[in-house]
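note to self — DONT lose this again. spent like an hour looking for the file last time. sequence + predicted structure for the chain T wanted, 351 res
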Amino acid sequence: MKRTFVLFSLLFLVFFGLLVSPLLAAEERKDPLANWATKFDYSKAEYIYILSNISHPVIAGVANGYNFRDALWEKSNGRIYVDYRPLAQLGGEKDVISKLKIGAVQGMLSSSVASANIAERLGIVNLPYVVDTYDKLDQFRSDPEIWGPYSESALSSGLMVVDIVNYGQYGWATTTPVRTLEDAKSVNFRIAEAPVNIDVYKAWNTKFTVMPWPDVPQALQTGVINGLDHTAIVCNITKKFTIAKYFTELNYAQGLFVHLVNKRWFNKLPKDLQAIFLEVVAEESAKTRGMTRAQHDAQIAKAKESGVEFFQLSAADKASLIQQAAPVYADWGKKIGADYLAKVRSKLGSN
């Protein structure tokens, strides 16, 4: 009897442990978005604006969605609530773009590489050494003559481009030092699933692999890739520098999130709320671009402290990259509008 009782007790404890352990583990897991939880009651909002993004708000360009939420709530006197969904809660960017077009989602902070699939003109910001610096980005946004055609380019898809925020300057995170273009020949770079980037890397005659972002960590760890085309901000925050200990500051383009809005939804807003919406978007986007500059410097400093080495290509190597990209400028000039591309490059001093 004692043996039976002991056996039964042990089985019960094992069963109870199996049942309770996952629950305890779930309770111990921290909500990654807890720091950005809504601090007001939005249950009586007249309008709900569902806004999507794929990344984590520890990146200033992603946190823009939360800052916009709070500022719009205040300035609209609680009439519009931004239901912000970062971390790909609504799916991958291609899926969300489809939902955005039909109005199932009302807004999206889309990566600029993904937005080029909506309208080819949106791909101008991904071309190398066109909108490549923080100053040029601010100038691009503030000049109606060059911003206007860009912001109107997705209207045929029922979408408005209302503003743009950033997450740093693109370069190469690598597992071996890349100080020159000759060094780069030994690297297999992961690039985004975007038509402009593919054409650029073909023109640069550089080995590359097109890969979804979630696949990158394992690919780096296993050596499937030994280089990563991204920004220093993202590489440091997402721990890519724990494997790729070197970063070549090409600074050939800005990492951007394009704020897209479903035009049908926007048109249903009262005129006063439309004005408030656009005003707040502009104010918060400008603030975010300033915050990204500061985050750029801070994240590079942290990466250097942890042992990451930073390099810059020579002026001759940079000139070579621009020269090799000539067919890309010509080809995408036809898609974007040759006169428009020429005007943007001229105004920004990117010729």
